[in-house]
Fold each of these.
Amino acid sequence: MAEGQLPRKIPLIFYRTAAGSEPVREWLKGLEEEERHAIGKDLLRAQWRWPVGMPLCRAMGSGLWELRTDLPTKRTARVLLCVYREHLVALHGFIKKTRATPEEDLAAARTRRKELER
């Protein structure tokens, strides 16, 4: 950041389907409050520090980023993001159960990202 320049927060939006639902917001609402709070804190951290690297975010290729949150409940959450028109877009969220990011979760995020660009 240039000297004298104030930090700038990149806006975060939730991907919305053609029918108007927001899958990531709905997924978040189904989590326990302390888990939602932890993910929200990390999303905010990413907004203020973007572009941000490990351990908070990892590039997944194809313009996708994985926000990594270790939850207070000892579970691990991931939110897949992209940058679209100077906004961070939360495309897909899930609780990680395996070491590798499941292909179906990546595929869902890739599909949603392509829909944004149509």
Amino acid sequence: MMKLSLLRAVMVASGMLFSLVAVTPASAEVQININKGNVQPLPIAITDFMSADGIGAQVSQVIAADLQRSGLFAPINKNAFIEKISNPDQQPRFEDWKVINAQALVTGRVTKEADGRLRAEFRLWDTFANQQMTGQQFFTQPENWRRVAHIIADAIYERVTGEKGYFDTRVVFVSESGPKTDRKRALSIMDQDGFNVRNLTNTKDLVLTPRFSPSRQEVTYMSFEGQQPRVYLLQLETGQREVVGNFPGMTFSPRFSPDGQKVIMSLQQEGNANIYTMDLRSRTTTRLTNTGAIDTAPSYAPDGQRIAFESDRGGRQQIYVMNADGSGQTRVSFGDGSYSTPVWSPRGDLIAFTKQSGGKFSIGVMKPDGSGERILTSGFHNEGPTWAPNGRVLMFFRQAAGAGGPQLYSIDLSGYNEQLVKTPTFASDPAWSPLLD
């Protein structure tokens, strides 16, 4: 199997496809301002990409599904299309697309090269400005066609919104199967849309809290292999696995530093838990908190200068922020109820959390100083938020009342676009990857 780190090199964009019409100033182009809160989705027409074997239509379907799930785009039913695109290199009849209120149009083709590779190319058109906005082409092996579709969706998202997309990513999670009395758990990974699921571990040993490295295709997680709780590092490209360290007592919530050089975690000793970091090169540990309470779930700010964590030192779980060396420990959550699982946004502007109050579990966000708290979704049991790499969408898991097991959901920062992420089994504790290399 091709290494992921090499995949982008194989699937390199060979340059922009030349626009067939004069480019007018950017102010005339269709745009989505995603900083306005609840945004009205942009009507967009995504035609079936031309191909000899139907793969083009499949690529188009994945692109449309990605954009629709974002909540920012509204793909138009193909039955409404007036013009049938027979040559994606030619300028479309813009009036035919304006009639059905398609403010943007995507055309393209997928062909097979002589060496067996797929060539996928697309053009994004602004139908009301009568111009092409962008066009690119990619080469890859046939089995990677879904990745090509996700990359094209990212390119469209970025061109229209001005911000990076998040579709060419993966999610590692805990897959759960079997009855409640004998639940089996394995570490699994999938594309962000729930496809291409595969197990990374077997169901023999309990696994918890998987987390992606921000800089490598590497995962850290906790396993009870041999009835001994340990933190492991797993290289996704090679399958190589190693123990971070053997610590006395329980180890919780391992997470990488932003540069990927350290793992921060909570170690339980003599009834309390404190936060430590381990340098992955020297394997030296540094203690950051020293209390008789339970300090756990640490998460770095993206610049590595501060750490959010949860602690019950005040009587119940609350969110605290400290400097990276452990100094300046300050409580930032003061609402009703208890707060847990803080996760710093990749943008640095927000901390996501789980809140338990009034018999409900909620997923919310607040600014790093605790101000501006907003609840995005509430239910019987919601927990474990993780950020998409662009800091615009969260994934979490939900256990509904009376349901057989947890399921994964995503929600954007508006709180209006909540989506079920279907998985073959019950699923919990998701962790979103960075954009793939």
Amino acid sequence: MKKRVAVAFTGPSGSGKTSLVQKIANQLIKEYRVAIIKNDPKDKAQFDVAGKDSYLFFQTGAEVVVTSPTRTTYFSQREKTLDDIISMVNTFDILLVEGLKTLPLPRIAIFRNSIDISYFECSEAIAIDDSIDLAKYTIPKDITLLDLNNTTQIIEWIHAHAKTV
């Protein structure tokens, strides 16, 4: 069995986290089994349409699993730890986590237009594009600077820094 690794992505709303995770996953999936965890801290995600069975079941407060020939979806009423989620997903080589700044995972912070330096304390790398004027910032020496538009470079960083889970 291959070792399983995980890395996290963070950044302000609208910075491109979802787009980057999607691009990275599309590349990695060619060679690896990829799993993605997305944090929804404001509970904005819509899991189903009101009135449909899964929506009605979830409204009861129960743990709900919806299965079909092409997918299985798990709806939970309880917060899950990273270890809980890893054991549920189980079969993956690389886990990409969007959000969850408190998890003990190597983290890439993503910025466009400006850098929020408060992310430095929870990030090992930052990915930026040419909308950032680096002359305005002092990037700590222990943070790797990545090109937001260079998925190859970001994937190389992931292979070098992802944490075994």
Amino acid sequence: MKSVHGGAAADPLAPVLRPVRAGNGFEEALEQILQVVRLGLVAPGDRLPAERELAERLGVSRVTLREVLRVLQDEGMVVSRRGRYGGTFVRDPQPAAAGEPGALSVTPAELEDTLRFREVLEAGAAGLCATDGLPPDGAERLRAALDATRDAAPDDYRRRDTLFHLTLVELAGSPTLTAQYAAVRAPLNDLLNRIPLLVRNLEHAQQQHTALVEAVLAGDAEGAREVAREHCAGTAALLRGFLA
């Protein structure tokens, strides 16, 4: 697969899929594939990697993997199809509407904890990227992720937004940081899916994305951290307004 700039495209599943530890193979494999689905790393209607590839990347048997996929199918998150063009496909999510009874599945304290942790991780990653510089293909990957958010259709925007932020965090060079961010981003996306997309907010967010990339590429660590903090604060304000 090629990127929009002609180079080798980065694997969007790499920040999440990794070999599981012995002893909890089923549970950890389920956790990781749930993150792939909830983060939108595979778009609704698209196919997950083939069983053989997934099993190899997770370090589990295909029997274990099929048990994981069966759970996801029972939960209505994926659907399996047979035949030449078969496989396991991500289903369209059915989010609860904002304001519905029971729509908010976290307490106000849990919401604030998620928002604060997300801000710390993103601001820290932005600062690291600006201070330490990016890997050889880092600038290209970051710009491509930014371009994808700019060109995204409304129904695909949040998935592209997630990929942009996940790319930035991954480029900081810490697998632990990336794993922690993926873990906090999944419940954040569940909350974002409960509120409407607002044109003005998307325009403002895109301006912040651009400023963030410019600060990182210029090596302006404090500027990058400040833009990241402001961007996270804007998202937090919307979530509090709709859900708290």
